[in-house]
Amino acid sequence: MRILLPFVGYAFFGLGNIYFFSIASKQIPPSVAFAVWMGVALCGLKIIEISFYKQPSSVMDYFFMAMILISIIGLKTGKP
Q1: How far apart are the C-alpha atoms of 56 and 75, rounded to whole Å?
Q2: Domain span at 34
Q3: Number of H helices, E strands in the chain
Q4: Which of 1, 18, 45, 54 is the most exposed place for a label (fewest CB within 10 A)?
């Protein structure tokens, strides 16, 4: 039973990722959707590491997370 719950969560969230990514790919180019998806995931994981797992962080960590988020905004609002 201990192994079943993480597996069910992994399957549920994996299918959710595929579904929401496919919706995003209909609205914006797939390359931009993937870049946004990965940037949000990376920043989210870093915030979880710092918040819940008490990993050490530095000003540079926050600087580069801000740069990722600024890049995402630039990709979504940029004009060709």
Answers
A1: 30
A2: 4-77
A3: 3, 0
A4: 1
**pLDDT tens sequence across 1-59:** 778 888 998 899 989 988 988 888 888 888 888 888 888 889 999 999 999 999 999 99
Number of domains in the chain: 1
CA distance readout (Å), 40 to 2, 4, 27, 43, 69: 29, 28, 17, 5, 8
* CB burial of residue 14 (10 Å; 0-12, 13-18, 19+): exposed
Distance CA 62, CA 67 (A): 9
